[in-house]
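Here we describe the complex-level prediction in full. Unlike the single-chain runs in Section 2.1, the two entities below were treated as one system.
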Amino acid sequence: MAQIRHALNTKRADDFAAWYQEVISAAEMAEESGVRGCMVIRPWGYGIWERMQRLLDDRIKATGHDNAYFPIFIPLSNFEREAEHVEGFAKEMAVVTHHRLIAGKDGGLIPDPEAKLEEPLVVRPTSETIIGDAMARWVQSWRDLPLKLNQWANVVRWEMRTRMFLRTSEFLWQEGHTAHADEAEAKEHTLRMLEVYRAFADEDLALAVVAGEKPENERFPGAVETWSIEAMMQDGKALQAGTSHYLGTNFSQASGIKFQNREGSESLCHTTSWGVSTRMVGGVIMTHGDDDGLCLPPKIAPQQVVILPMLRDKPEDEALIDYCEALRATLASQHVLGEPLRVLLDTRPGKAAAKRWDYVRKGAPVIIEVGGRDMDNGVVSLLRRDRLWDADSGKPAFQTPTREVAGQTVPDILADMQASLLTAAGERRDENLTRGVADFAQVEQHFAASKYPGWVEVQWSKPTGEALEKVVERLKEHKLTIRNVPMDAAPVDGSCIFTGEPAVERVLLAKAY
Amino acid sequence: MAQIRHALNTKRADDFAAWYQEVISAAEMAEESGVRGCMVIRPWGYGIWERMQRLLDDRIKATGHDNAYFPIFIPLSNFEREAEHVEGFAKEMAVVTHHRLIAGKDGGLIPDPEAKLEEPLVVRPTSETIIGDAMARWVQSWRDLPLKLNQWANVVRWEMRTRMFLRTSEFLWQEGHTAHADEAEAKEHTLRMLEVYRAFADEDLALAVVAGEKPENERFPGAVETWSIEAMMQDGKALQAGTSHYLGTNFSQASGIKFQNREGSESLCHTTSWGVSTRMVGGVIMTHGDDDGLCLPPKIAPQQVVILPMLRDKPEDEALIDYCEALRATLASQHVLGEPLRVLLDTRPGKAAAKRWDYVRKGAPVIIEVGGRDMDNGVVSLLRRDRLWDADSGKPAFQTPTREVAGQTVPDILADMQASLLTAAGERRDENLTRGVADFAQVEQHFAASKYPGWVEVQWSKPTGEALEKVVERLKEHKLTIRNVPMDAAPVDGSCIFTGEPAVERVLLAKAY
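The structure predicted for the assembly as a whole is:
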């Protein structure tokens, strides 16, 4: 086997965190903005987010939700209403106190002391309270229910330590909010949206997530139940990729979301909320990326195919571009994975080989290079991003189909790559998920033994309150957290590794982002 | 002619401002949020904005722009760099001064004095300066140019008097920002984007706008040239519906957007910016709305066709729903105006007649009611929103095609309605545009003479500086402003109505939103 010269400087095995940063920078996905904790999402990164938005938005609308838009500012008093919610959120938030600037003594600008707000406004960290106010106005009778809303928006949580896409002070997300007539329907809806997230994560992003309920200590502030999908990154850590909350009547009580039921008396609504954010982009990087950069599932690639003619600034270029344009047109006229195929013919100045590596780092699923000799032979040189290298030669694994064959088979290659990335993610997750651990000492041993130890599934007695706190503290010593209680876990057959009591369910333990 | 009982309480002719508010409320488009100057955009209103976004985004991408996302917060110091820009913006803005809340003495929450920001952050009123910083990092050589970016975002300008959609403290928009190698290319691009806006406004929104350059006093802060599209509302006022700015090297100087040109020396970029916002929704209301509510051009209607079975909570309902469902499926399988037809079969509880008026007020282009008798006769009852009334009978002008004919002809009706609304808007604009005014006294007379006086086109000598200020002051006395210098105006043939000097161009005078 020949030595391969990878397209990045850092390898995943050497320094996963540095590798992650290098992918983001090399793929031109995002960068620090100079504004504390806020990133600039560059066109390639934003193009991925736009693709995610489109696919998830279709799923959210297909389940009967309408999009709406609510104010970015939330009056301070809203946060004083729902006690647990305050406790969870009323800490690190951006607070607007003035509405005007004037020149200060040194000539610079300062907030105008004359323009101080009577009540400070908080830049929304989430919109439960303000959407709750609107729901209270809109819901009067059982006929108005269920009320199913979604919002695409930016939110701000003042994070002390930030990491691009994974944890930023400002991030983009969707937040769904629904109101229902009773507990059963609201709980059912909480799980329906969890399933929407699971399907989106697996079928569109190829993440191979595990869906399950969060333990009490990991619940959203104010929620009765919190469910999540968890994805395993290539360093074995877990990424919470989406959450769905059953909020009981906590928020409807605080906001007064009431309705006249069929019997004519007044009831409180049962509400849900659920969200997925730009951190999902980080999950895609750490699930599919490799030592050559990003690798994108075709469904979310801004461009699925990039065609690079090897231009030489000579008159022959014209014929070469025509040759490539015919392939582009053939591909663009086709559908793949339910949508028109996205193909770019890149004729900007620059060497094709240099551009090839740019698109490899950006994770474009299929890269097609065409030189004069290819044209003369009626072929093209085709690279599939997830099978980049020929292990024997150590060189890029170019296929050289005829242009006609390429025009016919590229959609199949893309569909195969989408499926194959999910299979790979699922296999990796299963290989790195350790079961059958008998006691906590084995857990400690497991996580101490390797750099990327994956997840461990254990059985527990589902302690609550102080007993749970003790478990959480003990896990914390090893930087471990309980991810969730997988919905499809095997039945329990032993005792709790923490308390020794009879186990009631299985939980996943992992280090997490 | 019989008396018509319109679906709104307020008539345009009686109180245009009150009518506007009633449309927004009756069509469930938006409402006050309780947060100062910020509105809640309800699903129907947001659905219209989503349609606009999709159509305009396609046009922006088709002209070679990529979307990206920049931080919502802008450091104060950014505003101190470009002098004119500061002067124009550094006034009424939301200023973030703290990043944490704590409990105050009275138990309520207060900004934590320990968590005061060293440098206050401004919630973006527009993103020239922060995008300029990014451009300075991204542009190194002539090969990086042109750089063509667009952002969809929320922005905040602390407005004292707000009106839903037209002027709100927070609003949604797109802002395009481009950098070019020279003045000619940047100016050409400024006009290209103006043309994109004109085409969007006319072809998608049916507004019949006038494109032209703004006079010096109406320029965007820091711009060298500002161009606009102006739409005439039904009260004769003008609405600035979109602007495109050539910024010269003002912002590239301030942010350091430089490049190495082909000769190897360093040059400043020439930049442009351009934006369209949710105020466009207000423009649609005031252009197409009538005394029955909103009337939507089919291209931007969230639902183009609404089918209302007259359900009676009886077993026969099932057959009726099947009958309607077949029509829905026939329509949904077709394309109209370049996209899949959007049709809703509404089977929620409630009387069909009450729902009909709800959808009339919401401006759904085609409403189809189906009762048991219609089904027995194989027909449907069809209303076209822009031809709602039968003037003779004073009743809704139902057509009763067979279901098969409806399935075939509805796409044509929608396409015809799209065209017909543009024709109507263009005719109304031309009828209310007065030309051939000889002096300012005639202008005064014209605007004093009627309630909805429309626009007046006059010739002027294009005064600048103090001379222009005098003109602006004089117009202000009559609440008039100069809208723009129409690109397709006739050649001048007389003298300036303000200065008496030889005229050099024609300008539009109007009251404006």
